[in-house]
Amino acid sequence: MTHNVYTQQQLRCKSLPQLKRIYSEIGCTLEVNDRRCKDEWRNAIAKYQSAQLQKIDEQDIAQGEFDQYIADQAQAVAPEELNRRPSSGCCTRRINSKRNIFLPPRILRR
Prior knowledge:
Elements: H1 8-12, H2 16-25, H3 38-77, E1 94-96, E2 101-103, H4 105-108
Antiparallel strand pairs: 1-2
């Protein structure tokens, strides 16, 4: 679920009940010491949002590193291009001209 990201300026325009509602909606878990003070609610919301954005950035970096690792492993296991047609030989597949698909040689011998 995604939530709006509020700026300090937007939060300054909110009333205390609105700040409490925003705090609940975004799932903020930071402690608010003085529950009557709007600044406490604003700071808690801002800190929580900042931490969430940091987590997203770290997840994006980790996903990119993981994707590169998988690509490197695939290249190490199968270094040749995947789009190349197999060379002729006893174990190669042939193209069925009617359906334009690859078939193993044993199926074509029938």
